[in-house]
Amino acid sequence: MDEHNEIGRTRDALVQSVMARGRTLRRRRYAVLSATALAVTALVAGGIAVAAHDDGGKVRVDSPVSPSSAGPVDSTTSTTTTTPPATDSTTGSVVTQPSGPPGASTTTDDRCHNSYDPACGPFHWAPVPQSTISVVFSPARPVVGDTVTMMVTVDGLTMLGPSGVRCDSNSQFPFAFDDVGCTWTYHYSLCFPPPQDPPRYGLWDPPPASPLHWVWSVRSVVTGPIPPSGNVPWDVGVELDCRADSPYQQIPEASGVLHVDPAPSTSTSTTATTTTTTG
Amino acid sequence: MVGGDESFEADFDEMFRRAQRLACRLLGDPSRADDVAAEALARTYAHWRKVAGYEHREAWIARVVTNLAIDEMARLRRSVVTGEHLTDEVSEGAVLRVALAQALRSLPRRQRDAVVLRYLADLDEAHVAAALGVSAGTVKTHLHRAVARMRSTLGPGFDPSFTEF
After folding, report:
1. Over the stretch A73-99, which tens digit does the pLDDT of each residue have?
2. Which parts of chain A have pLDDT scores under 70?
3. pLDDT for the residue A224
């Protein structure tokens, strides 16, 4: 009993100690925020004073445009499309400008465009390049013994080209593209980010890239037996431009369901071939 | 009340247990793991009004624990370099920890978050995906690439279940 009470006291002491430390951290954070707010207020007041002086006594304060008011969100996605919001290249109009990381500067000031100034906030690419992906099975409704082709098509922009394809199926169905060639391939020497010295801040233009139209396919023989539903769900992801600092480092993903019909007899072997076309 | 002292105290034991376990796996030292877990929860409490409402706050805490542990291992690295207060047995483990910290630190943030949440905090892939706001497939991709990269740093025998650590 005494031991139990002792443990309880120790636990309570720990909780109180942690909360006391947390309050100290919170006060410190508020102090920093207050000091920052005061500094910003002083700067704005100074700016207004200068504007009033320069503009014949007329006070004008321009507010930066927040990303959320920049325009409607692009909703042109489908089950086979991954679209990080970006510029609509066909019309040239901005469909969606992705917001930067928390705390990112929202100013459109050129000083914070491709900047090395820490005052410009966290580094981020803008616009984020857009890509689309689709997966198609052929034939669409195979029977056991058929050879099925899964074709993955990716369109977008890249500097290096796709670095790998991943296929997943939660089905226990013994018909597995991922066993027969639908696996990641790597370009290790290219995937490590180059050193960034000095570090970048604020909004940066993505570097020049080439259009990508990439078609990849894999064939496999349906071996059965088939689960009662006959549906085999597939998820496919393609990694574009594996370098960590590349704006084209995306993993567009697509999902598809292959419906397999039963057949009187089933094969026991699985074969596959892989073809790649890059355009 | 969500975000109040009562809810923090009510959830403290579970949060501390998870934080301590993760810190211990990263640091290999229960005593220092206690300190890191306590500091992580102090930081959690400092942001409790916000964090209490997070659906996956364990992921938030895990990230804090990881960053603190990596800092702690950086201090350990200085000890290893200078050879301060280290016996042979301790120094062997310390070198391993330092290598782990460096390998984790070298990962892109998303990959590091995925590795920590999946393999060190033992969340399942669906949970990790929800916590990071990505699909389960993307989590798999991040894990696959992170492990490949850690193997290139720590050696081909590196086990993503971190059994060595």
Report:
1. 222 222 233 333 222 222 222 222 233
2. 1-9, 32-109, 168-197, 224-229, 242-245, 264-279
3. 64
- Confirm whether B111 is domain-assigned: yes
Which residues make Cβ contacts (< 8 Å) with residue B138, sequence separation at least 6?
Answer: A237, A251, A253, B129
| Domain contains B160 | no
Are B41 and A244 within 8 A, CB to CB? no
Q: Total structural domains in chain B?
A: 1
Closest by CA position to A80, among listed A219, A228, A257:
A257
- Angle value at C-alpha A182, between A180 and A183, nearest 5 degrees: 105
Q: Which residues of B touch A29 (CB under 8 A)?
A: 46
Radius of gyration of chain B (CA): 16
Q: Do A25 and B144 touch (CB under 8 A)?
A: no
What CATH number does residue B132 fall under? 1.20.140
Note the maximum CA span of chain A. 91
Asked if residue B159 belongs to a domain, the reply is no
Q: What is the mean pLDDT of residues B68-86?
A: 65
> Nearest CA to A274 among A106, A151, A160, A141?
A151
B144 CB neighbours in chain A (<8 A) are: 166, 184
Contact B148 A25 (CB under 8 A): no
Contact list, A22 vs chain B (CB under 8 Å): 41-46, 48
User: b/e per residue, A68-86, with b = 16+ CB within 10 A?
Assistant: eeeeeebeeeeebbbbbbb
Q: What is the pLDDT of residues A159-183, one digit of tens each?
A: 877 877 777 665 545 555 655 556 5
A-chain CB neighbours of B140 within 8 Å are 166, 168, 237
pLDDT of residue A220: 79
Tell me if B45 and A18 make a contact (CB, 8 A cut-off): yes
pLDDT score of B35: 92
Q: Do A22 and B44 touch (CB under 8 A)?
A: yes
Enumerate the residues of chain B whose CB falls inside 8 A of the CB of residue A11. Answer: 13
* Domain, as residue range, for B130: 5-154
Task: Answer whether residue B61 is part of any domain.
Answer: yes
Q: Do the strands A253-259 and A231-240 form a parallel or antiparallel pair, or are they unpaired?
A: antiparallel
Three-class DSSP category at B137 = helix
Between A and B, how many CB-CB pairs are < 8 A?
A: 69
- Nearest residue on chain A to B108, judged by CA atoms? A244
Q: Are B61 and B15 in contact (CB under 8 A)?
A: yes
CB contact under 8 A, A19 and B44: no
